[in-house]
């Protein structure tokens, strides 16, 4: 079973406070618990779902999606956990905007023509963990995040789940299983990586097995 995991710094395994990489990140938990699964890690710090980063264009998830799908095909399942970075103040994105972006993302993954002789993969969308309540106070007045970022993060799960139902793909509310560290209000500690990894494993077993 080959599973492509596309995400941002919380998939890459960013350690809050140090910026180093967790050894026991959630994708590694999957691989540890399911040795028969090949887990392809595609976490990139700063990656958005669809918002264009004009300073670092490679961070736009929509622009890099087809390349990732083609370079790793065939895959049995694509796990997507993106949306947090779209909520940075400079993008002016709402939870509803994220849902529209996810719709385009899913259309691309589920397009059978790009897979040619390979089967279209299953999809699991994991809505990201919430931004911590203290984030906007820490960032004001010139940081990347503001109060609206925190507010919109609360609406991500509901908006994304509605799109997943529309397209018949799997959905998991990541915020039910993991929370950000109090150190930076954005990234998970090792305990939360494990909790999320176990939840993703259970959901994937329901989808794939």
* Portion in helices: 40-55%
Shape: globular
Q: From the alpha-carbon coordinates, what is the Rg to the nearest angstrom? A: 16 Å
Distance between the termini: 10 Å
Q: Which residues form runs of ≥5 with pLDDT under 50?
A: none
Tally of contiguous helical segments:
7
Keywords:
single chain, 209 residues, alpha/beta, five-stranded parallel beta sheet, 7 helices, 5 strands, globular
Report what the structure shows.
Helices cover about 40% and strands about 15% of the residues. With about 210 residues, the chain is α/β, with parallel strands linked by helices. Strands 2-1-3-4-5 form a 5-stranded parallel sheet, sandwiched between helices. The longest helix has 21 residues, at about 145-165. The protein is globular and about 50 Å long.
Brief description of this entry?
It contains 7 helices and 5 strands; from the N terminus they run E-H-H-E-H-E-H-E-H-H-E-H. It has 209 residues and is α/β, with parallel strands linked by helices. The chain has a 5-stranded parallel β-sheet, sandwiched between helices.
Q: What is the fold's blueprint, element by element?
A:
Blueprint: E1 2-7, H1 9-12, H2 26-33, E2 38-43, H3 61-72, E3 77-81, H4 95-110, E4 122-127, H5 135-139, H6 147-167, E5 170-173, H7 190-208
Parallel strand pairs: 1-2, 1-3, 3-4, 4-5
Helix pairs in contact: 2-7, 3-4, 4-6
């Amino acid at each position: 079973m080959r599973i492509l995991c596309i995400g941002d710094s919380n998939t890459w395994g960013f350690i809050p406070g140090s910026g180093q990489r967790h050894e026991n990140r959630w994708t590694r938990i999957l691989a540890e618990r399911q040795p028969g699964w090949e887990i392809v890690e595609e976490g990139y710090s700063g990656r958005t779902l669809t918002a264009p980063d004009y300073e670092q264009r490679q961070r736009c998830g929509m622009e890099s999606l087809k390349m990732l799908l083609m370079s790793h095909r065939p895959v049995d399942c694509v796990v997507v956990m993106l949306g947090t970075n779209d909520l940075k103040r400079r993008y002016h994105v709402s939870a509803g905007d994220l849902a529209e972006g996810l719709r385009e993302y899913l259309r691309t993954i589920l397009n059978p023509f790009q897979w040619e002789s390979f089967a279209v993969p299953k999809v699991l969308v994991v809505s990201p963990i919430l931004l911590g309540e203290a984030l906007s106070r820490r960032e004001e007045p010139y940081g990347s995040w503001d109060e609206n970022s925190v507010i919109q993060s609360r609406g991500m799960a509901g908006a994304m789940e509605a799109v997943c139902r529309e397209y018949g793909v799997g959905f998991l509310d990541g915020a039910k299983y993991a929370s950000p560290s109090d150190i930076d209000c954005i990234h998970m500690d090792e305990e939360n990586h494990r909790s999320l990894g176990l939840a993703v494993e259970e959901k994937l077993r329901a989808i794939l097995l």
